Amino acid sequence: MVKWTDLERSTVRAVWEKVDIDEIGPQIWARVLIVYPWTERYFGSFGDIFTTTAILNNTKVAAHGKVVLEALDKAVKNMDNMKRMYAALSLLHFQKLEVDPDNFRLLADCITIAIACKLKSALTPQVQATWQKFLAAVVEAMSSQYY
Ligand code: HNI
């Protein structure tokens, strides 16, 4: 289990408080699809996501970004219990959605970049290090049911 200091806990919470899910969620999922176009293959039901403009205007992409960030909100609130909390979601991504877990890491990078664009100089190297430790724990928990 990942151990957290009090400073790390308060840093993660402080970063997360600045994230507006309705604003950042859509940006993150659009970024994933634009930067890593092979991820389109998982979203056959989303309609037209074949150009940058289409992705940025697709309401299903925007909604999905919010769903994923709402799941991340649960991780912020359950930092000591992430593996158990994400067990069913990990299994869903493995067995039903068949998402390659390498994509979790790519998503984590997009999350950090979107947050960096928002926080600017407030995302100091120390804050970023803690934030990335948090996202690494999320990625590990989301990968935990894969074999
Ligand atoms: Ni993910 C559905 C959370 C990474 C592809 N995903 C969900 C749902 C949640 C969720 C919550 C809704 C589940 C439900 O309806 O029961 N996804 C997360 C989290 C991460 C993540 C917390 C990583 C931190 N998902 C990814 C990645 C991909 C992905 C990296 C592919 C690139 N997810 C999907 C797909 C669905 C999905 C596909 C189903 C979408 C739909 O609406 O059909």
TrEMBL record:
Residues 3-147 form the Globin domain. Keywords: Heme, Iron, Metal-binding, Oxygen transport, Transport. It comes from the Eukaryota. GO terms for cellular component: blood microparticle; haptoglobin-hemoglobin complex; hemoglobin complex. Signal peptide: none annotated. Pfam families: Globin. SUPFAM superfamilies: Globin-like. InterPro entries: Globin, Globin-like_sf, Globin/Proto, Hemoglobin_b, Hemoglobin_oxygen_transport. GO terms for biological process: hydrogen peroxide catabolic process. GO terms for molecular function: haptoglobin binding; heme binding; metal ion binding; organic acid binding; oxygen binding; oxygen carrier activity; peroxidase activity. Belongs to the globin family. This is Hemoglobin, beta adult 2. It comes from Amphilophus citrinellus (Midas cichlid).
